[in-house]
Protein: ABC transporter ATP-binding protein
Organism: Leptolyngbya sp. NK1-12
Amino acid sequence: MLMQQTKQHATTKGAVLIEGLSVIFRRRGLVNPVLESIHLQIQPGEFVCLLGPSGCGKSTLLNVIAGFIKPTEGYVMVDHMPITSPGADRGFVFQQYSLLPWKTTFENVEFGLKIRGMAKAERAALVNDYLNRVGLYKHRNSYPSQLSGGMQQRASIVRALVNSPSVLLMDEPFAALDAQTRHMMQELLLDIWSDLNTTVIFVTHDIEEALFLGDRICVMGVQPGRIKAEIGNTLQRPRHFDDTLSNEFTQLHRQVFELIREETLKSMEQSMEVA
Ligand SMILES: Nc1ncnc2c1ncn2[C@@H]1O[C@H](COP(=O)(O)OP(=O)(O)OP(=O)(O)O)[C@@H](O)[C@H]1O
Ligand SMILES: [Mg+2]
C-alpha cells in the first residue's frame, strides 16, 4: 500500500471551470430551480470537498460535471473542453455500491478498459496493479456479494481510476461504511490521490471528512443551491487522524459547522413554509 500523502509531482490535467451554472428541473408544470449561478474554478490535482444540507444540489452539481445532466444555463469545462456528455476523463464513484453483480472484482475493474479496446495482457497488468494497491488482488475473482462494503468501494474507486481520469467525482462514497472502515478508506484515498495527482471533487455531509481530505471546502447554500462560502484548508499534509484533535482542526470545524447550521435552518424553514 502507498504511504505518502504529499504531492509527488505537479499535474497539468484536471482543471475544472464552472461558470454561471444553473439547473432548473421542470416536471408537470412545476419548476424546481436547483442550482443557481455556480462559479467554481478548480486547479489540476486539487482536492475539493462540497458540503451542504440535504437537497441543496450537491449530487446535481456532480452529475452536471459528469455530463449526466445538462445545465439550464452556464457551462462546465474540463481542461478547456466544454462538457456535453459523460466521458472517460471523468471517473464517478457513487454512494451506493454500484459494481455489476454478475462480474468478478477483476471483470468489474477491467470493464471500461475492455470497452476502450485495450489489449488483454495490458489490461490484466493494469487491473492487477490497481487491485494490489488497494489490497484487493487476492479477491480479484470474488463477486461483489462476496465482498464487504469497504472492499466494494475500494473496487469502485479503482474501477474509476484505472481509466486515468483527469477528474474523480465522488458522491458520498464512504457514507454507508462503519466509522473504522471509513477512516481507513479516507487514508487510502489520500494515498492514491497524492500518488496520482488526479483532481478530486468529493461530496460529503461529514465536516470531519471534508477537513481531513480537502484542500478546499465549498459550502453550498439551500435551494436554489449556490456556493455560499469557500474555505481554504490550512491543515498540513500528510494528514493523520491525530490532526483531527488539534486546535487548528477544531477551529476550522467550528467555522464550517456554523455555515452549514445556518443553511440547514433555512432549509428546514423552507420545508415548513411549503408544508
Ligand atoms: N433528475 C431530477 N429530476 C427532478 N428533480 C431532481 C432530479 N435530481 C434532483 N432533483 C431535485 O433537485 C434537488 C437537489 O437534489 P440533489 O440530489 O442534487 O441534492 P443533494 O444536495 O445531493 O442532497 P443529499 O444531500 O440528500 O444527497 C432536490 O429538490 C431534488 O428533488
Ligand atoms: Mg446527494
